[in-house]
């Protein structure tokens, strides 16, 4: 009945998540509130892991893209589930290291890593630094030399694949700030440059074509293009790369009409391509890495808000305002991303109106959605926005000096805070005068 398996309705007619009554959660922790179903997070990790196991045997790894939702608890969870980790900043790396994440299983991404970040990555012994460009390649070689340790690297390649998704979250095409283009010869140039350097060891390639992608074909095509490039590298340089990181980007269901394929279908399709292409090219199957973020964390989360004012503008629209907004979920403002919503304390009632859900920021564009089918909402109701586990908490801000909401993990009817609510004191903590 719901887009997410962890949700239900109890006999009071209230929305539940992970066996917890959402009304009790807001009574205990107040609003706005991020709630994540721990069991579902773990399920997603396990499903990915077992499909990598099934299609590539021990010769693969699932690296959770921590940018989608990063805090100590989730890094620890990914570690416990035997995943690797994709980090993209010194901050994400620090969070991972603070829980003792095994550095060899970390992939460090980014189109403009600072010398400081690269130095830290080397000191931690990060297993794979994903080099984005020639400047970084040189810099990393120098830093590795000064530390006298060889950096294991992948090169980020733009495979030139257009995966139909929102422009801002599309990255595989030539006009992208990420990576080295194949078409222009830049990628091959970087391979040769890396091979000639003493303090970097090129072990493989990385690509990521975008996010929230439903089609399987672009992923298959990407695998094909990347493997052919690996064969071309072998031909031109004699170098046999052993690792291929195919990135993340698998779409999830935000609305009832969305129909993402199960991971299994994606893994099956891509692994067929990998196996047949390797056979054609006479290549050993490389160690395959995938980096799902949204599809691990997204469906496991919801956000709960308290409804404040309800403003009906006759003949125009009804604004239902909540006590959060673009500060805890900027995705509608940024990408017109759509969400399913419901009044948590009227979960079993029919949705009889269409409303605009607005946040409390001093900004007209601070909306969480328009034309949202909703139960009759009145001040004091609790509004639930579904599938907010990815790119909500991780993209939150303090605009208008709103403190960030806490994150609560729920499991088997029990709840615990994994990230505390920010306080007003937190907001002025770094102000010097
Ligand atoms: N690997 C790399 C190198 C990436 O850049 C990304 C996402 C992922 C993996 C994970 O992709 P996922 O499986 O989560 O789609 N803020 C945007 C999404 C930006 C994605 C950036 N890179 C949003 O809210 O939709």
Biggest pleated sheet: 9 strands, mixed
Low-confidence stretches: none
Output the radius of gyration.
23 Å
The average pLDDT value, as a whole number, equals 96
Strand coverage percent: 15-25%
Main CATH class of the largest domain = Alpha Beta
What distance lies between the first and last C-alpha atoms, to the nearest angstrom?
Answer: 53 Å
Number of helices: 12
Ligand types: ligand LLP
Approximate shape? globular
Count of separate structural domains: 2
Q: For this structure, what is the CATH homologous superfamily of the largest domain?
A: Alanine racemase
Proportion of residues in helical segments = 25-40%
What is the CATH third-level topology name of the largest domain? TIM Barrel
| Number of beta strands | 21
CATH architecture of the largest domain: Alpha-Beta Barrel
User: Structural class of the helices, strands and pairings?
Assistant: alpha/beta
What are its keywords?
Lyase, Ornithine Decarboxylase, Chain A, domain 1; 21 strands; binds ligand LLP; 433 residues; alpha/beta; TIM Barrel; 8-stranded parallel β-barrel; 31% helix; 9-stranded mixed sheet
Task: Explain this structure.
This protein is 31% helix and 24% strand. It has 433 residues and is of the alpha/beta class. It has 2 domains: 7-37 and 299-428, Lyase, Ornithine Decarboxylase, Chain A, domain 1; 109-292, Alpha-Beta Barrel (TIM Barrel), CATH 3.20.20. The strands form 3 sheets. Strands 4, 14, 15, 16, 17, 18, 19, 20 and 21 form a 9-stranded mixed β-sheet that branches. An 8-stranded parallel beta barrel has the order 5-6-7-8-9-11-12-13, surrounded by 7 helices. Strands 1-2-3 form a 3-stranded antiparallel β-sheet. β20 and β21 (414-419) form a beta hairpin. The relative contact order is 0.16. The model has no long low-confidence stretch (mean pLDDT 96). Ligand LLP binds at residues 65, 67-68, 86, 109, 169, 208, 211-212, 247-250, 291-295, 331, 335, 391.
